[in-house]
Amino acid sequence: MHGETRLKEESLDKRNFASEVNEFVELLKVLKRLRAPDGCPWDREQTPKSIKKYMLEEAYELYEAIDKEDAQEVKEELGDLFFLLLFLADLFEESRDFSLAEALFSIREKMIRRHPHIFGDVKVRGSMDVVANWQAIKDREQEKKGRKKSSLGNLPLVLPALQRAFRLCERASRVGFDWKRPEEVLEKLREETGELEEAMKSGDREAIEDELGDLLFTASNLARKLDLNPEEVLKKALKKFVDRFEKMEERIRQNGKEMREMDISELESYWQEVK
Q1: Are residues 105 and 123 in the same domain?
Q2: Domain region containing 241
């Protein structure tokens, strides 16, 4: 697609966008007022580096709200994150690097370019074809920019390690680098466990770290082959642990005891009781 690409009339949603556009403009007015020369001192002092931590926090809060399936909380957290994104764009616009309009134009063009089955003549048979087309188009874009081409893409290093492992293996599988069945990954997991045991016997801390990393990485692969996201699986397991641990603490308190004064066998009996 080139320059001023416009969506075909028939592809547009027929609803009235006036309300969304009005609220968007009003929010921009609030942002501009806060960051005006006589605006809020805190907002005026912010830089892209100083607000990135808030963006990450808000993204996680939105993630958590979605997990809770609380629509009102999602609405609030979505608004918070959206405002910070506009804030970031305003910082770069102020330094004359790019404008919000340019950022919006860029993503619109990208979405049109990467969906040729919607905005072009490409035919697809399902979502797998869509993903393959997306990756092929992305690869060509990276080549034009002179960037290193890899089927693994450029996943952010700041992603939680377990989630990054899941996404890396997901991408590797798109080009055929994958086990065929979950049972094959389970066998690999047993192999990695054996290698970790050997490293532990040797006492070599670097080898232990290396083998433990392999074990965790393989476990994330097993989750993927079972159509599970390892990050979500672990989150669920952590919640279960916290719930049971707190029940155990309460039961021990009710019996007039202190956890730190109990041996592991007694604690284990309470743990089994609350399970």
Answers
A1: no
A2: 236-274
